[in-house]
């Protein structure tokens, strides 16, 4: 899985003339992953201002407006890819348009945990 992080300034700067080139880069990136048969799924996320975090403390639900962590970069989206190796995943992450100004975290999915939960 690729977890795609960018700064609030990056998100805010994509208006007017700066939006279309960024979207075009994402379209090309997405198309290359689909054409390679690597793309499984993914989505962009709304800004962190729309986030709500839930925790249980003492058996009671506590709800907090905003993301789990207050960081310089925000989780802006994710992609699930089917790739043969970590090196291939790192190469895909390096080509991600957000990697130029933000960060792309590569994290393997744990299907064995899913199997334990689903069955």
Can you put this structure into words, describing what you see?
It is flat, with a radius of gyration of 17 Å. It contains four helices and six strands. The chain has a single domain, classed as Dimeric alpha+beta barrel (Alpha-Beta Plaits). It is α+β, with helices and mostly antiparallel strands. The chain has a four-stranded antiparallel sheet with strand order 2-5-1-6. Strands 3-4 form a two-stranded antiparallel ribbon. The relative contact order is 0.25. The mean pLDDT is 90. The two termini are 23 Å apart. A hairpin with a 2-residue loop joins strand 3 (52-57) and strand 4.
The CATH topology comes to Alpha-Beta Plaits
**H/E element sequence:** EHHEEEEHEH
Determine the strand fraction and express it as a percent band: 25-35%
Largest sheet: 4 strands, antiparallel
Number of strands: 6
CATH architecture term: 2-Layer Sandwich
Mean pLDDT across residues: 90
CATH class: Alpha Beta
Count the domains. Answer: 1
User: How are the strands of the largest sheet arranged?
Assistant: 2-5-1-6
- Name the CATH homologous superfamily: Dimeric alpha+beta barrel
**Coarse shape:** flat
Low-confidence stretches: none
What structural category do the secondary elements indicate? alpha+beta
Helix content: 25-40%
The helix tally amounts to: 4
Radius of gyration: 17 Å
What labels would you give this structure?
119 residues; alpha+beta; Alpha-Beta Plaits; four-stranded antiparallel beta sheet; two-stranded antiparallel sheet; 4 helices; 6 strands; 34% helix; 29% strand; flat
């Amino acid at each position: 899985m690729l977890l795609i992080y960018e700064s609030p300034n990056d998100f805010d700067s994509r208006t007017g003339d700066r939006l279309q080139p960024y979207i075009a880069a994402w379209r090309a990136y997405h198309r290359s992953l689909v054409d390679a048969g690597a793309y499984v799924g993914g989505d962009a996320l709304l800004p962190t201002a729309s986030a709500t975090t839930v925790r249980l403390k003492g058996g009671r639900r506590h709800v907090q407006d905003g993301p789990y962590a207050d960081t310089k970069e925000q989780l802006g989206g994710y992609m699930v890819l089917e790739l043969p190796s970590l090196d291939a995943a790192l190469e895909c992450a390096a080509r991600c348009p957000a990697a130029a100004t933000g960060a792309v975290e590569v994290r393997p999915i744990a299907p064995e945990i899913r199997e334990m939960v689903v069955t």
